[in-house]
Amino acid sequence: MERPGIENHYTLTYNTANVRDVIPYDDFDYKIIKTTINPVADSLVNEIWPLLRILFLAVGAYEIDIQFDHARDMAEFGPDKCPNDQYTEYHARHQFQIDADGNWKAVFEYDLKGRGPNGYTDNNGFYYGFKLAWEKVDNWARIPRH
User: What is the rounded distance in angstroms from the CA atom of residue 136 to the CA atom of residue 37?
Assistant: First the structure.
């Protein structure tokens, strides 16, 4: 196994009887969290949605808890692949559950901190760190089988 400790980063429960091998194309707007915090935050908070949507289309109802933690990520992925380096520290938690009818609840927490002489900034010195707690209840339709 390439990443033997990856199971320490998430829990996922679903019914294997609901698994679909083929998923039709899904034209879907993944910009679900609307923020105007900064360009990094506005993008980062929506990066999880394609995974959550494709899981729903593939397995139906499920619950997932995904955690990004500075120390755990560095130990698993190392400095060459880990977004946490000597200048940044990223922590996030995505708790998501969806039922067979597409009713979902999301509870997300984000904390991106810059460290070091420049922190995490753009060429103009704008600091891209942020902290956000976000919750929402909504509904998704599952694409019918063809």
Answer: 18
3-state secondary structure of 53: helix
Give the residue with greater pLDDT, 62 vs 74. Answer: 62
33 CA to centre of own chain: 12
The three-state (H, E, C) secondary structure of 12-36, written as one string = EEECHHHCCCCCCCCCCCCCCCCCC
In whole angstroms, give the CA distance from residue 108 to residue 98.
14
Specify whether the CB–CB gap between 38 and 108 falls below 8 A. Answer: no
H or E stretch covering 105: strand 103-114
Q: Closest by alpha carbon to 35, among 50, 45, 20, 24?
A: 45
- Answer yes or no: is pLDDT of 64 > 70: yes
Cα–Cα dist 84/77, whole Å: 10
Tell whether pTM > 0.90. no
The number of C-alpha atoms within 13 Å of 15 and in the hemisphere containing its C-beta is 7
Backbone φ, ψ for residue 28 (5° rounding): -135, 140
φ, ψ (nearest 5 deg) of residue 87:
-105, -15
Please tell me the distance from the alpha carbon of residue 28 to that of residue 26, in angstroms, as a whole number: 6
Q: Both tokens of residue 72?
A: 């755990």
